[in-house]
Amino acid sequence: MKKTEYIKLIDTTRCTACRGCQVACKQWNEMPASRTRNFGSYQNPPDLQWNTWTLIRFQEHVDKNGDFKWLFRKDGCMHCTEAACIKVCPSGALYHTEFGTVGINQKLCIGCKACISACPFDIPRFNQETEKVYKCDLCYDRLKGGQQPACVLSCPTSAITIGEREAMIDKAYRRLDQLGGKGVVYGDKFVGGTHVMYILSEDPAVYDKLPVKPRIPASVILWKNLFKPFTLIGMGAVAGMAALHYLIKGPHEVHEKKEGDE
Amino acid sequence: MTNHYIDLKNSDVILIMGSNAAEHHPLAFKWIMRAKDAGARVIHVDPRYTRTSARCDYHVPLRSGTDIAFLGGMINYIITNKKYFRDYVVNYTNASFLVNPDFSFKDGLFSGYDAKKRSYNKETWTFQNDANGVPLKDPTLEHPQCVFQHLKRHYSRYTLEKVSSITGVSEENLLKVYEEYSATGAPDKAGTECYALGWTHHTTGSQIIRTMSIIQLLLGNMGIAGGGINALRGEPNVQGSTDHCILYGNLPGYLKMPTASLATLGQYLKKNTPTCNDPQSANYYQNYPNFFVSWLKSLYGNAATPENEFGYSWLPKLDDGKHYSQLHLFDRMYKGGVKGLFAYGTDPAVSSPNTNKVRKALEKLDWLVCANIFDNETASFWFGPGADPKQIKTEVFLLPAAATMEKEGSQSNSGRWVQWKYKAATPPGDAISCGDIQIRMMDAIKALYAKEGGPNAESILNLKWDYKDRQGNMDVLKVAKQINGHWEADVEVVDAGQKKLFKKGGLVPTFGMLRSDGTTSCGNWIMSGSFGEDGENKMARRGKEDPTGLGLYPNWSFAWPVNRRIIYNRASCDIYGRPYNPKKKVLEWTGDKWVGDVPDGPWPPMADKEKGKYPFIMKTDGVASLFGPAMAEGPFPEHYEPLEGPLAKNPLSSQLINPTIELFSSDVDQVANASEKFPYVCTTYSCTEHWCSGALTRWQAWLLEMQPELYVEIGEELARELEIANGSKVKVSSARGEVTCIAMVTKRFRPFIIEGKTVHQVGLPFNYGWLYPKDGSDSTNFLTPSVGDANTFCPEYKAFMVNVTRI
Amino acid sequence: MSGKIQNMVRVTDPIERIAHWLLAGSCLFCLFTGLGIMFRSWEFIPELLGGLYAVKWMHIFSGVVFAFALAYAYVMWKKDCAFEPDDAKWIAQGGGYLWKTNNLPPVYKYNAGQKLFFWFVVVFGALIVLSGLVMWNPTAFPIAVARWSYALHALSALVIGSFFVVHLYLGTIGNPGTFQAMTTGWCSRAWCETHCPRWLAEREKGSSES
């Protein structure tokens, strides 16, 4: 099957934070609501949850010129090409789909939570009751059926759009030109390129919970690229050496003193 | 809307003032973003920085209730700096008309004020006429008595300094907006205005809109693509309900409700049918009798005959000088003067001002009938907070109603598009549509009257009431066709030189064919033409053709009147019919006909002195009104302070508040102006996540999750002063009541400098009630005063005074 | 029988042996299930044990057993495994396992190699338990702690696993006569003279005195 990689582009300069996407996501994925409290912000739930795969983050920001800005960022899975979550997932529940996105198969998930801390974007969430991890799968079922993801479909201002990889990267940079260069394209320069990209009006460092240089954590690389293979190599090597020792030196016999052998 | 949603994309400058478009019209905002993509400037003027502000080029905060001052300053700027579109102003407005020399304006009052009645005698608010009864004009606009000079004098008082001091907007920001917006006075530039409840919810609401209309006329922005004054109305058919007379003073199609003194049809028609002696004025309302009599025929059918004045005498009449708005209704109910109330799809125990008064008033009813898709605070008022069920004798009926998706019918958007929709699901359980509830109830009432008789029985017994299908349910198509209108007899009509015979029972193709002799019936004249003669339901049209390229989509649904997408569109062309902006041609006169949108009448442009007509055909004089004597407060809008404000004196005159508003005086109608006890200006609003009182949306878990409870937005400066922490519980109180809620401390509210003093403003949404969620607090309207606009009685939810305390 | 016992020495008591096998068993099981979780190629392990999800819980459960066994073993053996100066000499000569040596210092209960193994198991066992606890509920810890726990867990498994193989070899075929120490608890006198001469001497002296 021919692979068509998709990118979902989130243009924060067009987002009105109506949160249609947040509801559409729950509706399509049949995720229940949580009982929340107002904690002094429009943002709610306060963070991503196992049942909240996408969340508009509201942030009040005063820029260098002293201008006030209310920043809205739709948070959710970035669908990395070099996906830490897939790298650490023991069960194959997390996988790359034919669209380049990171799918999740809850049937396979064993709830080991390795992906939760491995993710450079802090996306996967654990459900205590089902003992499984949840996150956006970019509406894999809809993509397969030739439909747009629910969030894209719900967006009234075309702040969220989806299309083929190259075309969307191109679109992102054209939009940046339209904005007179006042903005940042985020997503194409790390982890092999994400399949969700942002057009940000501010420097990425300004945004809450957005890593400036996301990458697969060093601990994961050490673990998966070094320790993991060396566990087998090490044990195998030691076993081999023991065998060699047995063959060359033979067993370490006890010293006979008085009683003789029996 | 004079224009329509898609047309917003054609604008060069969009002023969003009195609206939080991004939050409350998120889909409409798409077109504002399209305009922005095409290079338009989008300006937001609003007391608070909202999600709309975040997407505009810039936001200018102003104190709640000072919009007229802000806009008056713009009029002054436009005239002083000659930014107006002179051709347009001279030809298409009453700027050149000479005003009655006895007309005057002094210290906040126009001539003819009666302080006792709190109203005006308008006899001096007129024009000087020539011998033929046609108003005298001075096209040079120099005559000191001409409207333009009056206008100039009136708004010369609105200097930058004065306006800044009233509104709290810096002079720099005022100039920035004025300059940018008045640049649309160029013939090829379009400026539009989007407003909503931020303008209507004031004691000066209608006049705020009038002020903007004056600006739009001065800049030549009416009738053009990307122009107009655009009320962004509620999603669920607010436009439709207004078209079909939700307001007490109206009959369908904005016909006037008769008053008791107009005893005969003749008197009524004489009063409401304007006459004009200028042959070039189409004065389209001269057809008023055709619309009204056809409406009577639709109401009483065969029982309506010329002999009985088509049943005019059976119509209920308003008492002269009495008002019947919701404010009056609850005032009267509170005083024990109302027996029963139908509250369909409404939750006044949350949504009406002065909740304490409303809930007490409900206790005085004998019976209350509610029809809703969920229970709400009104239907359950008798066991709500502070109510003692043992003491309340009101009998309450809660009827389960079908939701909008469970009904077929028409739905009108703000752009006057009447779109047909189909039923998506069957209502659950015993729920039926409100129409079916009405039909069954009226059937029963008719049967009772037939059996027992009663006062004004003819009105009920003669009512034409045959809107059922074979199963006995409401037949929406029958209703819709009656609204469109039928021929009540075989009639031969001469149309464009052709004789044509229309058969009795056939559909009337357009309101131009309605007659006052009883040969046509029509339930709502503006909707006439929504069906084709052949029975085609034009509201169900879904053609995506766009011949003008302006997004008019003439084959998508039906827009009243006669599928016109931009009203007053003849004003988009000069007096010869040449479009002012050839790049965005709404209409063009080709020498024998108009091409483009459906024109405001077929007549040639006004340069043709014989057959030509002025463009504003619905106005008696054929031109738009810079001088508008129909308004209660005066022909020119004037800034008055809200009923409750931070100032003891109006900086512009001795008239502190709107001199024509009605003041209610019950024991619970307390007012605290410029009081130390309630030092903060407060405004109320909705949020994207909830709708109106939240009676529908609070039950929706996904929406409640996002906005779970009542909050008050407080600026950081005030919060610091009051030592209020973000997310903590606070009490907000006014002279009328109090609510507890969560403090949302934000940079989005900044204090204003008003008349040299720091004034803080706070704001609360009005989407919560005690019934559900249980811990989401209660109605914000405990705080708001029962007072309304002098023309519409729309309550002043947007500006009053409160105190905020920690708890 | 008595004659045999005459030639045998009881080197461990039952509690010691139970502790040892709990530790060894849970460790082996953790290793086995851990490998099954870590390596997709070792799918036969979860297949054998009723699926990966079940294996996750088995791993956690046996990890808890391991933690308690380790704690007990630490208390029990820490004295016997305390290093003494002679251990350096023993290590310098590779314990006589790698080349021929004549002057190995006489060992008390455990030789330096065994002590080293004990301390590696204690240290990395503690690390694997602690990191495992973090991994059980990673969101309760700072992200860096959670992330490094995974690496540390893998590293500890690598260390313990490798030592385990050495221990297995030396405790069985590498040193004939040793395995009984952890089965019956009885070893030959000769074995004791070879592996723990000082301990044997002290024990025999003590018993003759009494």
Automatic annotation (TrEMBL), chain A:
GO terms for biological process: cellular respiration; formate oxidation. Coiled coil: none annotated. InterPro entries: 4Fe4S_Fe-S-bd (IPR017896), 4Fe4S_Fe_S_CS (IPR017900), FDH_Electron_Transfer_Unit (IPR051555), Formate_DH_C_sf (IPR038384), Formate_DH_Fe-S_su (IPR014603), Formate_DH_TM (IPR015246). Pfam families: Fer4_11 (PF13247), Form-deh_trans (PF09163). PROSITE patterns: 4FE4S_FER_1 (PS00198), 4FE4S_FER_2 (PS51379). The keyword Transport does not apply. Keywords: 4Fe-4S, Iron, Iron-sulfur, Membrane, Metal-binding, Repeat, Transmembrane, Transmembrane helix. Its main location: other. One of its GO terms (molecular function) is metal ion binding. It is found in: Cell envelope. Gene3D superfamilies: 3.30.70.20, Single helix bin. The keyword Metal-binding applies. Residues 6-36, 68-99, 100-129 form the 4Fe-4S ferredoxin-type domain. The chain crosses the membrane at residues 230-248. GO terms for cellular component: cell envelope. This is Formate dehydrogenase-O, Fe-S subunit.
TrEMBL record, chain C:
It is a multi-pass membrane protein. GO terms for molecular function: electron transfer activity; formate dehydrogenase (NAD+) activity; formate dehydrogenase (quinone) activity; metal ion binding. InterPro entries: Cyt_b561_bac/Ni-Hgenase, Di-haem_cyt_TM, FDH_cytochrome_b556_subunit, Formate_DH_gsu. One of its GO terms (biological process) is formate oxidation. Residues 12-185 form the Cytochrome b561 bacterial/Ni-hydrogenase domain. The chain crosses the membrane at residues 21-42, 54-75, 116-136, 148-170. The keyword Cell membrane applies. It is found in: Cell membrane. Belongs to the formate dehydrogenase gamma subunit family. This is Formate dehydrogenase, cytochrome b556 (Fdo) subunit. It comes from anaerobic digester metagenome. The gene is fdoI.
